[in-house]
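Please review the protein record below. Tell me whether the encoded fold seems credible here:
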Amino acid sequence: MLKKINIWYLSSFLISLIVAVPIATVFSSFFENTGSYSSILKNTFLYDYIFNSILLLLGVLLLTFVIGVGCAYIVSFYKFPGVNFFKWALILSFAVPAYIYAYSLTAFFENFGTAFSILKNLFGEGNYNSSIPKFDGMLGAIISISFSLFGYVYVLTRASFHYQSENLIELGKNLGFSKKKSFYKIILPSARPAIVAGLSLVAMETLSDFGAVSFFGVSTLTTGIYNAWVSFDDLSLANQLSFYLLIFIFGLFILENLSRKKARYHSLSKGGFKSKSIISLNGYKSFFAFFVCFFIFFMSFLFPVLQMLYWTIIFPKHINDLNIVQLIFNTLLLMFLSSCVLIVFAFISNYGNRVSRSKFLEILTTFSISGYAIPGVILAVAFISFISWFDNNLISFLNLETIKSIFIGSVFGLVVVYFVRFYSLACNGIKSGYIKINYSIDESAYLLGYSKLKTFTNIHIPYLRNSILLIGVLVAIEIIKELPITLIMRPFNFETFATTAYIYASQDLLEAAAAPSLFLISIASVFILFVSKYILSDN
């Protein structure tokens, strides 16, 4: 036991423990006493929160399944004009957060909105508002979240389709299966683990969404948590509502992990892997495939971008109202600090696990990486609860200065919660890289006189530099789009493009929200295009 308690083991243990504390706080809060509003809520709105959350989840899962699997199938099995473009262009939907899509959807279809202006310019004056469909409430939330998140299903399913063996498809032909039957009986079941994994990620993100549902006035568990904290100043109630949401979240988390273990749903035949043949489409079939992909690309990316660009052009004064330099600085500061902290500690944690080979440490690490499955609003509230408890009990007992100002309403506290939220992303990324490094390399280094530290710095870090770069970019994308954590934890007058857009939109100033939204999408798109070669590689 003493051998295992070395500096690397201890470091990995402390990192995992820090991440696990806010998560454990949520679980422990279920038994806390709450204010009078709690009983009123449980007898009135709680069931609405749960029902709306389930309805939202089912709607988003259905729509993302159809869009994600459909697009993945078309670009993987068929050749038509523009297919190589759509393979990567469809993932640009990741650059558009659901709340910004919600602003675009409302701005276009609202009374006297963009759609009204287009019809008026084309056909003259008229009562067009009555014929323009309205996408608000639950329907608006489902559409906004679906077009923002279908990329999870698309990327994973496309990867699964790409590596399917032609042997399986030929087996279907030998059995007399039509193309339609082969799809349902062979192709789709073979990709089931990837589809389930994608849908699980979509589900976790849907249940954690705050921006879109709050904008459309849809009462879910996430908005209830936020209101309990902000409107009623009841941390215990916010944590208890978080517990209900965690029941859904961890069920999905387990499902996603089970699907990963079944990543090879089928085994390759004795004849080995045979690349599938790509079918060239002609005529109306080619046009149909192009139209479907372009429609999804337009609706998921071009539509919100063009809407935000339209508002920005016709209301240029709102750009002048923005402190663009400060917003860029704040965004980049959070990105840089969070990425550095996550990469450094993820490296240390993984190396500690590697050299100690401790089952306990592995279990603790597994628990700590579940933070990604927990909505940002829950982690922020749980973190505040823990710091308040720590300050009121231990710090006051020792007659020390309060530490609340250090962790709450500060950039440092914001980075800490980001760390808990996205630790899974960094840790799993480094872990996947470490899997490729055989333990024999470490043993050879030790025989050559390398210490554990020198092995870590001179061998592991250089070998994993591509993983470091990829993780840094992925974290950057997440930080750019993150809304609830930033809203709750940010210092006074510390704004990002995400919070600025949300504040304007919450005040029904959609035209003012356009410029910061456009900046956010532009920055995120650059990072997404950078990582596309990693996540869409056909090699």
Q: What stands out?
A: The first strand starts at residue 78 and ends at 79. The domain at 35-314 is CATH 1.10.3720.10 (MetI-like fold). DSSP finds 26 helices and two strands in the chain.
